Structure formats: C-alpha cells, structure tokens
Amino acid sequence: LSVVSWNVNGLRSLLKKAPRALDELARRTDADVLVLQETKLGADGRGAVDGEGEAPKFLREYGTREYATSTARKGYSGTAMFIRDGDWAKMKRVEATRLSAGGFDDEGRVLTAELDSCFVVNAYVPNSGADLKRLPERVEVWERAIREHVRALESRGKAVIYCGDLNVAHEEIDLWGRHAENSKSAGFTPEERAAMTRLLEECDLVDTFRAHRPDARAFTYWSYRAGAREKNRGWRLDYILASRRLADSIVDAYALPDVLGSDHCPVGLRVAL
Fold first, then answer.
1. Where are the transmembrane segments (predicted)?
2. Which residue numbers belong to the known binding site for Mg(2+)?
3. Which residues are known catalytic residues?
4. Candidates 3.40.640.10, 3.30.300.20, 3.10.350.10, 3.60.10.10; CATH matching 2-271
C-alpha cells in the first residue's frame, strides 16, 4: 500500500500554478491513497475543483474523492482524500470525521477511510498560533479527541495509518536549529511534543519515517520568509504514523523536498500488507 500526504497550502492555488502537480506526484509515488491538508476550499469543496457533473480535471484514476471543508471560516483549513481502487486499497467507506473536539470540528480537519486492509486517517492538526493562543485547546481538547478516535478504530481489529500535517516537530532532529528559542513557538513547545509522545505510546503507533530512517535530518516545512527553504532551515511537521504491528512491514518511508508548490513537501509510506 502506498500512502502519500501533502499540505498543499491552498488546493485551487496549487492547481492554478501547477495543474499537473498532483498527477505527477501520484505517478512518481504510485500512490494508492493520496491525502491533502490545508485545501482552503469553501463548502462547495468538490464542485470548486472537480466541477459539477464533469470528469475530474486531476487524479482521474482516483474514483473515491472526499473533501472536508471549514464551515467556521471560508477559505480556511480543510482536508481531501483520493483513493485509487486496487488490490491494496479496496474501499469500504470514507467520511468527514467529527471528533467532539469543540470548534475544531467545524474546520474540516479530519477524514477517515476504511479499506479492506486498514483504516486511513487524514488530519490537519490545529496550529497553536503565533501567540500560542490555541495551545491549551490544541493539547487538552484536540489531542485527547484524536487519541480516542485512533484507539476506537484500533479496537475494530484493523491497523490504523494516521497521517497529515501534525503541526509538531517531535524531536530536536526534526527542527533545523534554535531549539531553546523555538521551544516557545507553535510546533515545538514542550506541551505539543509531549502530546505527540503520548499519542504514539497510548495508541501504539510508530513514526514510520523515523522508524525507517532513524538518523535522517529531513524537513517537510519551510517558512516563506528569509529564504528558509534555500537554506534548509525547516521543520518536520508532516508525518505518516502507523499501528506498531505494521512496523516490520515498512518498505519505504520518505519525504520529497524537491516537490514544490507549497511551503510543505509531500511525505510517503510504502507498506506491505
């Protein structure tokens, strides 16, 4: 099974700048499941990019196409999932997921798919904000709710693949530098990092990239400011986590920093199921 995740920082914007970007990514990675975050679509998400009653303009081989959009704020947040029918990705259902996580539930942040072989959860985890205003709600409400969701899926007897922009650099190796200074910044606070550790431990998940490449210094997000990408001053905020039972079946786990079009790059997982 090949799963690829990308925060596109605006789906319409990406398709306008690079109409073939997603098709090229799908071809390069042979993705069975392609998930996107920060799509920034309105309530008419599907119609806005796929057209009404038309053949899709992109990813035509992916018959299952689901969008979750923000009803709280137009052009904000949002997720999408595209599934290609095949031996590895026979689809049972996919739906936008409400976590009972307060206002976050109105922001289109989670999609959950049940395949024959596993569950796939696509999440755009809330950013705690420049002033950490949302940090308490992020850690105390969102993180608890997502742990409960993953555990509930696990209890149904299938492995879980949890992926997306998780908005945390978990370990020091996941951040380019200035660790003490950035410990007061969204994405590297002790509270967010501890919540990630708790997620991995309580839900018995593995960080597939770190399991496959324990010493790799790789990033998935670079600020548009100060030439951060050119200097590789990045953060690893994008992950594909998987049930520990899949750890020995990881074929590859990777990031694709050469793929442009967003301030994030895609990440991927190939696992033998």
1. none
2. 7, 38, 165, 167, 263-264
3. 124, 165, 264
4. 3.60.10.10
